[in-house]
Design goal:
- With about 375 residues, this protein is an alpha/beta fold.
- The protein has a single domain, classed as TIM Barrel (Alpha-Beta Barrel), CATH 3.20.20.
- It is built from 16 helices and 12 strands.
- The strands form 3 sheets. It has an 8-stranded parallel β-sheet.
- Strand 6, helix 7 and strand 7 form a beta-alpha-beta unit.
- The longest helix is centred in the C-terminal third of the chain and has 32 residues.
- It is globular and about 60 Å long.
- It binds flavin mononucleotide.
- Flavin mononucleotide binds next to helix 2 and helix 16.
- GO terms for molecular function: FMN binding; L-lactate dehydrogenase (cytochrome) activity.
- It holds the Pfam family FMN_dh.
- Belongs to the FMN-dependent alpha-hydroxy acid dehydrogenase family.
- It comes from Planktomarina temperata RCA23.
């Protein structure tokens, strides 16, 4: 068993274990992947301020996200097709998150269904909703989320149309994978993944197959999803969805201060500064760069979280220092899941927690809730001067 000390270690095992099609699906951004890359590299521009001779006993990373206790200010982001990275992946990730004391978000485009995850876990999870044109299906989906006792609805706003990721087109991405000469050749080298997949019945889009009339196979499903994302989405529709749900709401995919103000006006519990991990508008600025302006614009009216590019506990601390009261991680836990299943997600969380706690202490703090901008050296042009 290799010694795993970083998220990068997990990524390398993940790359060896999981079919190329699903590795590429995860490890890509749209078009030139500029924003995907910036999300990561902009974190590295922020530097830390070393402090000494400060009592660092009794350290705590515990805090709250929308009133919920969390062992560190991190939630697992919704990731479509997680159950293709590892058999029953959503259930395994949700279990690892619950045991670690952080929230799990199930994607609309998951492989395990809402009911599957609810039956296999004790802690309430969050559900991520795409806004869809099929109102009847959308209403039934919201009812299923209520029936599963999900504790918050995460409404994703940055995917009315799909940003193009070249590799997915070239690989013919589907769930389950279609058996072409190329996929068979690749699958032949991924035995442990394949054996585990044969051991589960969950290999299609669990929230959709069987719940939408006229959908009997995944081929028609992909056509359905392309047609179903609501291109006519506007703030009024967001308000209607919030009313239908009636519980805690988190709006995901906000990258502009004006949009953040609109969201806060609706009375949401939290917004997530996000560019979908660089998978939608290529050329958009990184989430960490946009964070300070959005925190300022919202002015405490709702919680402001961020995601995109977090690959270490240091990144979580930097986001916290720039004003995010919470963060989400996507790829970092998927690497762990693909590498080692549930234990790999736990490992990813452990690695990040240790990095977070140690860095916080070396910056002179023992309670994450006391961390401010003071721990950072921020380049003068970090937010950029844009005309
Ligand atoms: C493979 C993959 C699938 C994703 N699927 C969804 C999804 O179904 N719904 C959603 O709101 N966001 C989705 N996202 C975006 C994530 O929720 C999150 O915003 C992003 O992964 C954060 O960036 P990071 O991966 O650098 O941490 C997906 C991201 C990835 C990498």
């Amino acid at each position: 068993m290799p010694v795993i000390t970083t998220i990068q270690d997990l990524k390398e095992i993940y790359k060896r274990r999981v079919p190329r099609m699903f590795y590429d699906y995860c490890e890509s951004g749209s078009w030139t992947e500029q924003t995907f890359g910036d999300n990561i590299s902009d974190f590295a521009k922020l530097r830390l301020r070393q402090r000494v001779a400060v009592d660092m006993t009794n350290r705590s990373t515990a805090s709250k996200m929308i009133g919920q206790d969390v062992s560190m200010p991190v939630a697992l982001a919704p990731v479509g097709m997680t159950g293709m990275q590892c058999a029953d992946g959503e259930i395994k990730a949700a279990r690892a998150a619950a045991a670690f004391g952080v929230p799990y978000t199930l994607s609309t485009m998951s492989i395990c269904s809402i009911e599957d995850v609810a039956a296999a876990t004790d802690a309430p999870f969050w559900f991520q909703l795409y806004t869809l044109t099929d109102e009847d299906y959308s209403d039934r989906l919201i009812q299923r989320v209520k029936d599963a006792n999900c504790s918050a609805l995460v409404i994703t706003l940055d995917l009315q149309i799909l940003g193009q990721r070249h590799k997915d087109l070239k690989n013919g991405l589907s769930a389950p994978p279609k058996l072409t000469a190329k996929t068979i050749a690749n699958l032949a080298t991924k035995w442990s993944w394949g054996l585990e997949m044969l051991g589960t019945k969950r290999r299609g889009f669990g929230n959709i197959v069987g719940h939408v009339s006229g959908i009997s196979d995944t081929t028609s499903l992909s056509a359905w999803t392309a047609e179903q994302f609501d291109q006519a989405l506007d703030w009024k529709k967001v308000e209607v969805l919030m009313k239908k749900w009636g519980g805690k709401v988190i709006l995901k995919g906000i990258l502009d201060p004006e949009d953040a103000k609109m969201a806060a006006k609706l009375g949401v519990d939290a917004i997530i500064v996000s560019n979908h991990g660089g998978r939608q508008l290529d050329g958009a600025l990184s989430s960490i760069r946009m964070l300070p302006k959005i925190v300022e614009a919202v002015n405490g009216k709702c919680e402001v979280w961020m995601d995109g590019g977090i690959r270490s506990g240091q990144d979580i601390l930097k986001a916290k220092a720039l004003g995010a009261t919470g963060t989400m991680i996507g790829r970092s836990y998927i690497y762990g899941l693909g590498a080692m299943g549930q234990a790999g997600v736990t490992k990813a969380l452990e690695v990040m927690h240790k990095e977070l706690e140690t860095t916080m202490a070396l910056c002179g703090h023992r309670d994450i809730n006391d961390v401010t901008r003071d721990i950072l050296y921020i380049p003068e042009d970090f937010e950029g001067r844009w005309a």
